[in-house]
Amino acid sequence: MIPALNFKSIELYLFVVFVCLIYLLLTIISSRAFIKPEYLPYVKRRSRVPGILILALAAVALVGWLTGVTLFRAKSYSKLISVQDGDFAEDVAEIDFSSVPVLDSSSANKIAERTLGDLSDKVSQFVVSPYSTQINYKNTPVRVTALAYGDIFKWIKNTKEGLPAYII
């Protein structure tokens, strides 16, 4: 895949170097310089522009990297966040242990699959999404999992109605 034309992206430089190296390899193979050494000046002449391009890109990448190094930009990085003095006990409220979640994501998905199995009208059409989100529901932390369509045919049949429920 061709990378985006972004001079800050290393993928662009790697792609151009890769294309130049392929060109050099094909030039060597097509000229048969490895069989007849007298064709070597031809290969050198044809390799001059790609070689200069590779060196120029390496220099540009090196200069770009050096200008962004934290060592040289420490002053500008130090001003990104303004420091404010505070008291931790006042700034961070103490929480009740009953509001701390006790169920991890994989256990929540297993329980959600059992709950979906209890819903006889939904179990054949939907599956439990592997992703769950933790929310506060009625001041209690719970994990919420969405339903997903079982396959493409079930999606075609049910897409007009949308997803009917979430599993808490």
UniProtKB/TrEMBL annotation:
Q: What protein is this chain from?
A: Uncharacterized protein
Keyword set, alphabetical order: Membrane, Transmembrane, Transmembrane helix
Protein species of origin: human gut metagenome
Q: Where are the transmembrane segments?
A: 12-31, 51-72
